[in-house]
Amino acid sequence: MDGGADPFERLKNLPARGHHAMLGIYKVTDGADWVELASPFSPDFFIDAERELVSSGPIVSLIDAAAGAAIIARTRQWRPMATLDLRVDYLRGAKAGRALHARATCYHLTSKVAFTRCDVHDGDPADPIAFATASFFFTADP
Amino acid sequence: MIETTPYGRMLGIRKIETAQGTSALMLPAAPELEGRQGFLYGGVIASLLELACLAALSRELGDIQRRPKPINLSLDFLRGGLMVDTFAEARIIRLGKRVANADAICWQADREKPIASGRVHLLLD
Fold first, then answer.
1. What is the CATH number of the domain that holds B28?
2. Per-residue pLDDT of chain A (142 residues; tens, 9 = 90+)
3. Interface membership of B10 toward A (CB under 8 Å)
4. What ranges do the domains of chain A cover?
5. Nearest CB to A93: which of B10, B11, B69?
6. ipTM of this complex
7. Domain over A7-138 is classified CATH 3.10.129.10
């Protein structure tokens, strides 16, 4: 299969656009119900350049991207969906100069709602920087 | 001061005064902020809400040297955000010695029809 028919394979090969492109988001690896995305460090991510504090903004955007992609990995369908809610625990500050990685899993799926969780780190999965859960609802039938 | 930080500048955030005389953040629509076609990216909405909470806390503290850090964030998306100017305003619900609790709403053309709302806990150093 050349991947052209599978929506998830198609998603992986699409060039980044919009805010994904602004953050440089790219795919690292994926599985049957999960995706790991990353965003290279940029000095634009600082909320305080002098103290080298990385804003939580790029982290939450990367979580949103990974969670949405994990749902497509699991459903293998392009279904229009909207984020219902998002909860993030910031476990520690991200270190300057390190790429952000978010691994999201779609851990449950109903006909109308998808539930995801997401681990974020900046190089070492054993030393996470954030944990998130997000739910999405499908805005159209498959 | 959020608008002068590198991340605030990257998004293009501005500080505005609302008709009620309160302070809010405004994010002009830009192609780099788009998610699915025709809609503002959800992560950008979340970021704007968080930054509004940080700005509200900085005002309350009155000390620009302090940089509170988010502990967690819980937010609800209420409507799809369109590619138009977006606003967020936060209030500090409780300011403790170590932790502050803030809530925020985000709207576009009509403040009475918010597109997102959320709460943030912030750690005071």
1. 3.10.129.10
2. 444 578 778 777 777 789 999 999 999 999 999 999 999 999 999 999 999 999 999 999 999 999 999 999 999 988 889 999 999 999 999 999 999 999 999 999 999 999 999 999 999 999 999 999 999 999 987 7
3. yes
4. 7-138
5. B69
6. 0.94
7. yes
